[in-house]
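In the design runs reported in the main text, the only information available to the sequence generator was the tokenized backbone. The following block is the verbatim input for one such run; it is reproduced so that readers can re-run the procedure and compare outputs position by position.
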């Protein structure tokens, strides 16, 4: 039997020691290592379907040998894909994204070519959630004032506000949103969640109250802070415009660790300047790198960071665990959509089945990992996975099953411990 060609296209090239471990574990796979990273502007344009010839020309060049290796691949693990790859890689069957976002990989075009696409949602949810909570503490405890006083050698009493008893709303209950919710509860706050698949009467174990799309404004009016962790979709672009920002509780703090496109930045600056909004924490912006003349830099009570809320520590191990898990399933039948009629496992990480348990990473280390349900592929690439329980409930969709699951080559799903949302 011929070997499967797999190309790892980490933005920085993967360490050879990690690649050697992959080769040891999967002797039937021929692994190649080609670093590939596109400019942010091109990635964003691809995600929006707006990549013109001028932008595509900015893609990193490939040597003839690199192009030949990628063109012969059946499996790719990548953040970006070279322009036109669907036309010159006829053997491609499966792409494992190295992040939660998949828009830049143009999933509709991959689907049209019969290529399965899986994301890595959750691989960095823990550090991003820690960052969001840390920034909220920085705001509410007025750490900036204390830092200025230390710099000025001034000993003056200054106290922040009490966190216990506050209400925190989370827009987007994927892997990041859930990790934020769990950490927020540790501070004895009330946590409200908004999820687009939620319907009236639905509940979720990670939040005190759950709201669907129709209840978003009702939720916002109650929140002392709102954390945005939703993905970029046509429905979330400009979700927080001037009108919606006006529905926030006066003095509220807005945290965005999702996508810059969710937020109308001009309206945000206006809300901060008027004092209607207490503070804003942005780890993502519509344009990255943020231009030096952007009004965001000097907006009052603005807390900016350059899309760095994740952490490299433990990330490769978690990502490679996911990749190895999915690669095993891919090799089992070589089918991007899996065997028809495969049994559905009624196991769910949020109360429907077996609890989370600790597993060994295939490349060393250990990670907490919940076993989610298998799911069908009716949603297609980039669509909504629905577990067997949600189908038995009339197809409404379990409140826990959406893009926070990584699609697997055999039509299953994987709940993951963290990554860049």
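Verbatim output:
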């Amino acid at each position: 039997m011929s070997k499967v060609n797999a190309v790892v296209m980490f933005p920085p090239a993967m360490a050879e020691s990690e690649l050697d471990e992959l080769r040891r574990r999967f002797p039937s796979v021929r692994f190649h290592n080609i670093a590939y990273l596109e400019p942010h502007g091109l990635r964003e344009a691809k995600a929006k379907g707006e990549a013109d010839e001028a932008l595509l020309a900015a893609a990193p060049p490939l040597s003839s040998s690199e192009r030949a290796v990628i063109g012969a691949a059946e499996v790719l693990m990548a953040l970006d894909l070279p322009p036109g790859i669907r036309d010159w890689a006829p053997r491609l069957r499966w792409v494992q994204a190295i992040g939660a976002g998949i828009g830049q990989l143009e999933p509709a075009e991959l689907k049209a070519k019969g290529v399965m696409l899986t994301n890595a949602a959750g691989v960095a949810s823990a550090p991003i959630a820690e960052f969001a909570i840390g920034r909220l503490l920085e705001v509410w405890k007025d750490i900036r004032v204390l830092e200025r006083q230390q710099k000025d050698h001034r000993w003056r009493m200054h106290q922040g506000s009490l966190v216990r008893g506050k209400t925190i709303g989370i827009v987007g209950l994927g892997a990041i949103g859930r990790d934020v919710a769990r950490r927020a509860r540790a501070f004895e706050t009330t946590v409200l969640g908004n999820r687009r698949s939620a319907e009236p009467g639905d509940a979720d174990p990670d939040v005190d109250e759950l709201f669907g799309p129709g209840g978003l404004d009702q939720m916002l009016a109650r929140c002392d802070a709102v954390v945005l962790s939703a993905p970029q979709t046509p429905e979330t672009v400009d979700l927080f415009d001037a009108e919606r920002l006006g529905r926030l509780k006066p003095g509220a703090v807005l945290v965005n660790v999702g996508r810059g496109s969710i937020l109308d930045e001009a309206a945000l600056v206006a809300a901060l300047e008027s004092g209607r909004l207490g503070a804003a924490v942005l780890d993502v912006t519509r344009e990255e790198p943020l231009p030096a003349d952007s009004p965001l830099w000097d907006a009052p009570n603005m807390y900016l960071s350059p899309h760095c809320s994740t952490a490299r520590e433990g990330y490769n191990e978690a990502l490679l665990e996911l990749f190895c898990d999915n690669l095993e399933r891919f090799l089992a039948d070589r089918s991007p959509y899996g065997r028809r009629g495969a049994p559905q496992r009624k196991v769910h990480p949020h109360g429907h089945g077996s609890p989370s348990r600790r597993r060994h990473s295939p490349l060393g280390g250990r990670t907490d990992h919940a076993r989610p349900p298998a799911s069908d592929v009716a949603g297609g690439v980039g669509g909504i996975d629905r577990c067997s329980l949600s189908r038995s409930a009339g197809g409404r969709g379990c409140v826990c099953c959406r893009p926070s699951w990584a699609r697997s080559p055999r039509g299953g799903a994987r709940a993951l411990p963290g990554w860049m949302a």
